[in-house]
Amino acid sequence: MKTVSSSHLGYPRIGEKREWKKTLEAFWSSAISEEEFFSDMKSYRLHSLKKQQQKDIDYIPVNDFSLYDHVLDTAAMFGVVPERFDYEGGKVPLSTYFSMARGSDRAHACEMTKWFDTNYHYIVPEIGHKQPELVENKPLDAFLEAKKELDIQGKPVVLGPFTFLKLSKGYDEKNFEKILDQLVPLYIQLLQELETAGASLVQMDEPILVTDISTEEMALFSKVYEKIAGSLRTVDLMLQTYFEAVTHYKELIKLPVKGIGLDFVSGLEENLRSIQTYGFPEDKLLGLGIIDGRNIWKSTLEDALNMIKQLQKHVSYDRLLLQSSSSLLHVPVSLKHETKLPPIVKEALAFSDEKLDELTLLRDAIIRPDIEHIQAIVLHDQSSNELLRSEWRVKQHPVSLKSSRSSSFVERNKLQRDKWKLPLLPTTTIGSFPQTKEMRKARAKWRKGELSNEVYEALIQEEIKQWIDYQEEIGLDVFVHGEFERNDMVEFFGEKLAGFTFSQNGWVQSYGSRCVKPPIIFGNVSFVEPMTVKETLYAQSLTQKPVKGMLTGPVTILNWSFVRNDISRKEAAFQIAEALLKEVQSLEKAGITMIQVDEPALREGLPLKSSKHNDYLKWAVEAFRTSTSEVADSTQIHTHMCYSEFDEIIESISDMDADVISIETSRSHAELISTFEETVYDKGIGLGVYDIHSPRIPDEKEMVSIIERALSVLPPSLFWINPDCGLKTRSVDEAKNALVNMVKAAHQVRSAAVAAK
């Protein structure tokens, strides 16, 4: 009989109905004790493991659960805590752990940025002067818990030393190897303790191997793993990669590890070509990442089986580990709660639990290919996928659409200055204001039909008026309506455009307790009717100050949706762009001529290989310009972007040709400022002056310092002052107090600049 095993790379931590999120927020608000918090988290962790056990997965990952973020967990495990948190050594206290993630009254939070090219955010470790040490063996604790509580021989998941250090900050390339040398003995200690406890296979995550690491870096990587593997006797290492094809395949397969995990979804062509060209070692396991860990569509199991058969020339069945292509952290938990999806769509979907079923089914189909029920499932999946494909008809991008403004920025800027007559260093916000529990409850009742349209709209207008009045009171220069009618910046638009559908409980973690429910693009996208005009016009009727129209851009809607995996992402982006253009024109026609089209996820979609950057950036920028170009020169187009390394794409940002861009930078302000010391940016720009992801409220002095630092490299005539991002997740008091300090800081710097002239 053929033998083949199944595994996966990690399970969602949020729970089927976001129980994890609710417990986190209850603890932060002091509604539950620390003891209750740990008890609840343990119950969620064990429940998830038990489900995986019941689905007959051969190698169940442990230590994939986290109280906030797995990279932060790794930093805390090694005592990598910045000095500002007054950490004195030993196991990192829970209060310090959460302060690193969220900030506190005494210290600002660590930087947060995107996990490779996903919409998950990790906390960036800060390497300081204190040498790392193993203060808590988290993988060991997880392994022992699974063994004791459920009799599961788990596969511990460990973020590898090379990736951990590459994702950190606080060092330069000159001392990279020195710090790595400090970390390696700690990893050896960690693994030897797992070995003593009886672990047999450890998943070492090194996704950095799919990026453009140099030949010299790969040689150093090999040296590290030769040292680690050489120190172990009975525990085997599964070197795991994901999100792309590996860069140095020939060197990788020479490493003294038991197995190598490759992504056969995102990195299919390159990884397959590498195996066909160079073979695969006879003494190693191949972790075949064949079930998509980042999208929600069912696998075509017949194609997967054919792929496995192709690989038999190089890898025997007994050396195959059938896996997800990445952690299932990036997809929702279970389809079982979905009762309202169109049948044609639901039949074609697989969330985390269903993906585990697919892995088991694939394994069983190889072991017993004659089993009738397996053959029936394969045929059924084929027919459901074919039926779904009939919903998509490729549309040509109309050549009549403009993808550039009529005039240059200099010409437009003069017209816009004359029109708006804004002061030097104008102040604004990014878009959303806090959504109270009362507002969320009202929306839930309205969706259930328990609240009439008239009552719901009156509540929205009441919120808009309160915040318009507050913006008047504190002296902001450009207003927003607050987005009280919106559940999510992507979901809101998806609900109003053709071609989208929505799950009831398809939540995924974005950062911390922040979860999002991505729309599902299953058919052609098109404009139906105006989506934002009514609320924006109402807000504008309450003030003489300009109120920005607020839209989410085409690339962000694309990147933050679950998109059909059998269509071109570029094609989908242009369909969304054409639909959004009609909304921009509707706003302009209604008299709203300052319009913000946010693209926080444009950088997020940048491919991990530099050789693929230009193609993506070309169509991503063109999609944005398609959605914003057919407007009058006096109409001012704003956009907004989130945490990213912008120095790589600053030219593309300029090519977007927005009149004003705001960039989320407060946690990494100095790094971005250095970009503008070397690169001239000649359009309107606002660098976020405070971090909205933290409850901490910076004072006026701190914001003045940030503004002045930015003005050392950017012209005051083009500089805007704004928070890092929307204020939806903050409390009313946090938002108001921080905005007051921001306006005061702006007035102080403005007065000094005017006096200096």
Tally of helical runs: 26
Number of strands: 21
Q: Using only CA atoms, what is the Rg?
A: 26 Å
Strand portion, in percent? 5-15%
Name given to the CATH architecture of the domain at 411-496 and 531-756:
Alpha-Beta Barrel
Low-pLDDT runs of 5+ residues are none
Reported by name, the CATH topology of the domain at 411-496 and 531-756 is: TIM Barrel
Question: What descriptors fit this protein?
Answer:
757 residues; alpha/beta; TIM Barrel; eight-stranded parallel sheet; six-stranded parallel sheet; 43% helix
How would you characterize this protein structure?
The model has no long low-confidence stretch (mean pLDDT 91). The protein is globular. The longest helix is centred in the C-terminal third of the chain and has 25 residues, at 732-756. Strands 1-10-9-8-7-6-5-2 form an eight-stranded parallel β-sheet. The chain has a six-stranded parallel β-sheet with strand order 15-17-18-19-20-21. It has 757 residues and is α/β, with parallel strands linked by helices. It has 26 helices and 21 strands. The protein is 43% helix and 11% strand. The protein has a domain at 411-496 and 531-756: TIM Barrel.
Q: What's the short story on this structure?
A:
With 757 residues, the chain is an alpha/beta fold. The chain contains 26 helices and 21 strands.
